[in-house]
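Quick check before the chapter quiz. The format below is the same one you will see on the exam, so make sure you can read both the input and the output lines.
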Amino acid sequence: MANRTGACVAGLLTAGVMAVTPLAAQDLTIATSVPSLGFPFFVHMQNELRAEADSLGVSIVEYDGQNSTPKQTSDVEAAIVSGVDGLIISPLDSVAMAPAVQQAIEAGIPVITIDRRVDGVEGILSHVGADNVAGGEAQGELIMELFPDGARVVNLQGQPGSSPAIDRNQGVHNVLDQHDAYEFVAEQTANFAREEGASVTESVLAGLDSPPDVIVAANDDMALGAQQVIDEQGLDIAIIGFDALPEALASIRDGRLTATIEQMPGGQSRTAMQAMVEYLRDGVEPEPEVLLTPIAITEDNIEEAERLGELN
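Here is the expected output.
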């Protein structure tokens, strides 16, 4: 770990611009923090962060937020105290995690956010993620392709306060709200969780006079929970998820899940780690924002999925 004098990255004032003093490669230690390793998406993201760090020859300290803002805040504070050289974080809540991220920046620790943003904090080095609004729009466009004459839609929304949930919901509405033939008959959060996806779907179906045409979910866990209920009730309802988890890909391959959205979480992880290491080693300023463009994955183009090789 690099020696510090009040900061992990020393600043040199050159022609009025704050420059970075490169750190010795063997001394770099980068903290990584994800919302919860209880979600397969973040397990994959963390695995890719670790793999890229190994390939670049740097050490990482891994933190699991355990789906708790106080826990993730405590983790960031621990990383600051330990004197890490950089922080790559996917915040559980884009607003609630702002004070902890601000604290890291004020301690001189470069911060890159990944997958999820942090709102209202100045000085974040870069954000690497998917264009989640575009991903939600891809869901909406697929619904229009599958149901050109209109559809009744159930919308399983993600965790309130998380930027992907907000953006994906906006994207779906951007597309479908322009056409009166597409009606949202129910919209409810299932908190990105499979069990809640199942329970909310069951409750929504019980309250409708007739089944919807399609269920659109802000992640695959909720979509797979909905699929379980649909299978149990013997209904024919299109289901569109988001994240392209291996289990979702297998379900698409087997003709059960209709589609998912690929947002390249491995690509996000590797890009973020590369940007952090280049900044610390060589003073290379990353782009303030790097957004990968999500695509809809159906049985017709399943070979384009990042994690296809993990299917049994």
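If your answer matched, good. The two ends are 40 Å apart (CA to CA).
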